[in-house]
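Annotated sample (chain length 390).
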Amino acid sequence: MPDRAPQPVDRQLPTDEARDLISLVRDIAQREIAPNAAEEEDAGCFPREVFTLLSESGLLGLPYDAEYGGGEQPYEVYLQVLEELAAVRLTVGLGVSVHTLASYALAAYGTKEQQGEHLPAMLGGGLLGAYCLSEPASGSDAASLRTKAVREGGGWVITGTKAWITHGGIADFYTVMARTGEDGPRGITAFLVPGDAKGLSAAVPERKMGLKGSPTAQVHLDGVRVRDARRLGDEGQGFAIALSALDSGRLGIAACAIGVARAALDEAVSYAAERRQFGKPIADFQGLRFMLADMATQIEAGRALYLAAARLRDAGLPFAKQAAMAKLHCTDTAMRVTTDAVQILGGYGYTADFPAERYMREAKVLQIVEGTNQIQRMVIARHLAGPEGR
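Output written by the structure step:
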């Protein structure tokens, strides 16, 4: 059964331009993404042509400067675009979020020369990015990464393996964190590596329980040479850059999670109105009505939380704690709501004939990516009680 169109959200948007942007995104989503979403996800097909269209439409650089081809939209608006895309197909919403994350280091820490050389193609030239921090032996403990970058001549030689890389093997550029100095966070530097660099390759994509249309793969760097002009920020600043990027990226994941939860709620409400048992629609049974009410309330609370964090970011205020809270709450909400949607559909919810089971499988990964929800709790607790072991 094809996915249902997401029900419109009563959004509080800051400008008429933002309202027009949301309308454009919904139109593209319904015309270009929704018709093939279920079939392509089942087949594990990545919709590269959709990302080309999004780039041509100015939707791959929304939070970045117009000077370099970005949309110069506040995060408050950008995140609601992500929600709309994820409500139709998570592979697309998450892909835009990851591309934005991969572009962050250059946009925030690159020199004017670097930004002028690379950002226009990254934001509006049809390129697709990947973000390379995690490794096979350093996931949550990212500061222990072992990929090395060694100075040689006027550049660097990078060797190592990155893991769990969204768009691994298909990206046009990789933002890579590599060790250039001492152990620990102070010895890490960020680099912008071309996707066609000699010595860069990707393993066979991981076989995942959900999000099958989005390739996730190890990326191998075997003596990859890059010019020093592709170093982003100062030597040893890479880990700080990575954490700064993740604060914003976590808001992207939160928005995507609310999009998936919305899709599941829409499916559950529609099914409950149509399905009849004991002579009446099952939506008339109080137990089920209360489930729907709880699902809707959790979604609204999640949206309010990620928007509150985004508005702090837009105002130039600290938002790391709120970003962690948004990522934690919204992804846990997506897991609860999608599980309840499957329950409401009963046996049909457990079949691939309805999209509820796909939403549930996709929601699970959102509790893991860009910092597990256990890590989010650690981040929040540090803001409340200070570092551990003081």
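Annotation: The chain has a mean pLDDT of 96.
Annotation: Strands lie at 129-132, 148-152, 155-166, 173-179, 188-194, 200-202, 216-227, 231-232, 276-277, 280-281.
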